[in-house]
Design brief:
six-stranded mixed sheet, four-stranded antiparallel sheet, binds adenosine-5'-triphosphate
Amino acid sequence: MHLKLVDIHHSFVEGIEHAKVVNGVNLSLEKGEFVSIIGPSGCGKSTLFNLVAGLEIPMEGEILLNGQSVNGQRGHVSYMMQKDLLFPWKTVLENVLLGATVSKENVREAREEALSLFPLFGLEGYENNYPTVLSGGMKQRAALLRTFLHKKELLLLDEPFGALDALTREKMHEWLLDIWSQMQRSVLFITHSIDEAIFLSDRIYVLTPRPTAVLQEFNVELARPRTKEMTLSDEYLELKQKLMKALYR
Ligand SMILES: Nc1ncnc2c1ncn2[C@@H]1O[C@H](COP(=O)(O)OP(=O)(O)OP(=O)(O)O)[C@@H](O)[C@H]1O
């Protein structure tokens, strides 16, 4: 799996005007990489994900997956949108199976696989409960399980932990990295948190305000597995400072 965005431009029609949102974005993701995208609020991050997922068609540029243009094509990524809510009238199991059901995969097989993953996602025993009984972290893990069950090698995660408290969020980081290393998927991750981006990623793209483009790209040289102690290292703090400079310049 190799994803490449080549000079992507995109606008939305607002009244009779075209409002430019994406202004020549170039970025890439290699197989197995964890790459974060960080940028000012409203700069166009979710729009970029919608373009990669084929929900929007770029006005200019190419989205290449393994060298093939996938502009406007759907079904090649697992996408967890920012407001990826669970349906309150469906059980947790029914909710996580939604993607599999919609795409008409073998339902029984998907069900068995989902059940086998409940412990790993910390949801064991809640299969037949309704989402109202889940904590915030558990709801996000259920939405993530639904995304993982889509089975695409590339995962797009749009601020999956944005609504969680700091402590739950930190626990989710370690948990997500653990899952990611076990499941061998490539992740493109949107966040507003510099710490989250550094802790999770191999690389980080900092975007400019709207109309957005890549301002700067950073490599995260910290070893894996990542530990909380690393967040106090000189390497970590230096990178954090550089990212802050880029973001708040
Ligand atoms: N379908 C649409 N039609 C018109 N304008 C849109 C549409 N989708 C997004 N926009 C506009 O594009 C801009 C970028 O929105 P987008 O959601 O991509 O930003 P974002 O960086 O993900 O924001 P946030 O950080 O707040 O999540 C915003 O000004 C938004 O109003």
